[in-house]
Amino acid sequence: MKSINILKSTSRIGASMLLLATVGCTNLDEELYDRITSGNFLQTREDVTRDFLRAFEHSYWSIQGGNTFMLQENSSDEIMTPNRQGDWFDGGQFQRVHYHTWTPNDGFTADPWNALYGGVTLATNSLEDLQGIKDPSKFDMTQAELDGMIAELRTLRAWLNIRLLDFYRNIVIVTKVKGETTGGPQVTPQEAFAFIEQELKESLPKLPTVQSLGANAVGRWTQGGAVSLLVRLYLNSKVYTGTDRFADCAKLCQEMIDGKYGTYALESRWDAPFDYNNATSKETVFGFPGSFGLTHWQYDGGMYFWMLPNLAPSYFGFTDFGNANPKYAMQPGLDVDGKEYPHALGKPFVKFQKYPDDVRLKKYKNLGNSKREGMFLHGYLTYTNSAGKPDTVRGFKGPYALYFRDQVGKFLDAKPGTPIAEKTSNMNNADNNSGIFPVKYPFYPSDDLNKIASAYAEIRFAEIYYSLAECKYRAGDKAGAAALLNAVRKRNYPAGSPSLYKADGSQLTDQEMLDEWGREFLVEGRRRTDMIRWGVFNKGTWWDKTADADNHTEIFPIGQTVLNSSPQLKQNPGY
Description:
Blueprint: H1 6-9, H2 13-22, H3 38-41, H4 45-61, H5 68-74, E1 79-80, H6 93-99, H7 107-131, H8 143-168, H9 189-203, H10 210-213, H11 223-235, H12 237-241, H13 246-257, E2 284-288, H14 312-316, E3 329-330, H15 348-353, E4 365-366, E5 372-373, E6 376-377, E7 382-384, E8 390-392, E9 437-438, E10 456-460, H16 461-474, H17 478-489, H18 510-520, H19 527-533, H20 560-565
Antiparallel strand pairs: 1-3, 2-10, 4-5, 6-9, 7-8
Helix pairs in contact: 2-4, 4-7, 4-8, 7-8, 8-9, 8-11, 9-11, 11-13, 11-16, 13-16, 16-17
């Protein structure tokens, strides 16, 4: 199969979509049509390639667009968007997400539906075009190449559908869009699950392997990527359908580790899967290519760039995007007096500190030559200001230096350890000192050639290890689970560290398993899903969050604007 460089091709997607409206007949004697079809749009191999790629850019955007990231993280025990002295109150919407008190009238309940179905529609439209090609040789293509493109689009659509199933359960299966004027009916979660499973299984043998694609593998759905989606589907099957599929999940995980669907490997450094060259990392099973000059959605304000405090770009030496705005921070583990909260859930920074030799605990610092250390912004952040003088990061609400702490309250200019009179710590009473900020993807300085060059690693090989570990743990094999977790965890600690799990797995409990998922996959947009699978999303308590009255908030309501435009849809139970 001739390679397709997604990184270069996605920069032309906007142009290709414009072509959809303009390319057609150049002979004025020809019959005019009221819409463009594969018969008059697809003229060359490049046309087919552009058609194939149309859905990929939108799908990349959907990792944070449509509030998908916000809802996965802010509804969990991991991330918060508190009211910082009037900033980020936004009508209380983030508080409703935190407290699970959303309603169908909240716009964010419709946003993921629209965003994800936008991708489904684009993928389906392109599928219909490609499936309509009867003679691929006319486009300088083989049937195997065409079949591979079709398989990738079906896999991309399956990824979007899994997320729709996860958000809403009662979804619409879209297999045709051309000529359609109304939406289809909802299907049961079991039917949606079966459809997605079938799509992936049928696509699998026609997909390339990561090795067959070589340097152009990033952004392409491979056999390893499709199997990883089946792993996600089976791991959460009990939640989605009521049927346990952990054995099927374990089988596929082991086959992935054994190399049946392509050769992958874990990185030896914790930060390597997120670094500027991660597009070629053997740990990247599926990633969306990114670059400073083209697309970099994970660095958008809807995701990691606003997971930074004010003036953090000055601390990094990265000023191309202007200033940051602290929308997201980690939920606190300590009250305003520095005492650890008693609840078992949440407290993400405390969970990292449970193993104090974790190298990720270091304060994030750029080291030069496209290198960094540490994963968190905490304490004072010093830098050299535009006048060439030493300075410290300050906030929006006062001239004082900010001290970032694992606490939420009105600390203002109080020095570290100084008691404050106001003891309230909740979503409505924060300041710009409140919270620790994670930095998972690097922000290298503006003069670094590799700034904002990371691919977004949607699926990492580490996920396969953790999924298999969970399956083994649930089957009673704690030793097997510990070995798998340690295979990944060892890169987070010095050689010979006592922080690795004991070989017998005796330290593993339900809570420790969930905590470890949180440490390894912090702010990767999956925390809500993991909490639901472990049965604590509705029943658990964490900072400023009591248990829900029932479990109907396990899924989101279909937004009222969606229902208004699609009267055939029925609202989810409990709303």
